[in-house]
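Lecture 7 notes. Example A: sequence first, then its structure tokens.
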Amino acid sequence: MYADNFKAMLAFTPVNDVRMSLMTPLESYIRLGKDLNERRKTILSLRKEKLDMTHKFIEQKTLGMDCNKPHEFSDMFDKFGKHYCVNFTISRYDGVSIYQVARGIYNQLTEKDEALNKAIGITAQRESTGTLKCNFMHQRIIARPKQAGRKSVKIPDMESNGVFYCRFVDNSAVLATDYVDHDELHPYDESERIRKDMSSGVVLTANEDTDGKKYVVVKRYTMTKLHMYPHKVYQKQWDRFFLSVFHSHDNMKKLVVDHVLQQSDTGCSCTGNKMSCCCASDESSIPCGGHIL
């Protein structure tokens, strides 16, 4: 019995540490002023550090795990007026390239996949406030949760403000997102909306099996933090909403298979290279055509 409990505790470790620290190495303080050039410089200055830290953090989380087998760990808890949702997964996609899988994950992280939004139960309104393709994207999202019925109490809209980075090199890729703490141009309206902070990291590696068939291993860590004060939401509503969020990983995998495979594997649209991309460089002056954006 003790051995079984100990194994269960170890298996829960990839997400359980957030209960103590309330943050992860994927997060850093981001403050954006009103000057557009300075905003862009600030976001770009974080790119290399974000991607390097994401790769290191994810690889440390997967030490000792068989990454060819699926894993999923989740945790939810409330602390200091905030609701935390943590998810860590390892999954395998057969017969696809890194670019195909990354496109599906990108669409989910930026809430651009309408089919997935519908499955989760939200309607998303996006506002891109700055983009340098293959280097970063900055956007605000107002997400409206679907109501359970006409007589149910309305869940307030959720507001997020975040940055997205990606890097492709050789047979691997790293994707990272983090939230903006303070934005002078677009301040959070926490009295009317629930502020949603999300930080995530994804590491993709391309592989071939003994028969020469390609597959991609995806290691992903996501932490979502909802600022609940001063809003009041019934527990049943939250349970229903977060159940759909937890199932979003399965929905995303199905969408990758159903939709992304219908697209041709063109690789990087800038070079046509299926093994590497111009955004492998960390130079902030490369405004390439972009293979995802």
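Example B, a different protein, same format:
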Amino acid sequence: MRPSRYVTIFTNRATKGDNVKKVTTVIRRSPFNSMAVSDALRMSLGLTLTNNKVTVVFVEDGVYLSVFPAPDVIGYPDIKRHMETLKELGCELVVEKESMETRGLPDRGVALNVKNREEIGRIIEGSDRVIGF
């Protein structure tokens, strides 16, 4: 029996001698009525188990999560826990300023790093892998 492709991904662990890989997860979807954001954050947590430097970027409708941190209200309490754990592990959580402005969201009091589109472009450009949701 041939191993599944998912097994191959998770058995390819980095060792001490390997270079750190920069992995960026880009979340474009709204956290409302979808498990995609929770799945993206959970996957990002899994990526920290190997030798990866993980950054999570919230753009477009994904920015709603930065100002409405009440995931239990929208039915996905794991989102808050995943975000807190990512922060504790030293992962950078970034929200795009232009997406917030387009949606009329304030960038004051946001618990995430607010960066402009150009800065986010540099983060993505400097990544070894980019995963979009």
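Note on Example B: Residues 36-47 form the longest helix (12 residues). Residues 1-15 have pLDDT under 50 and may be disordered.
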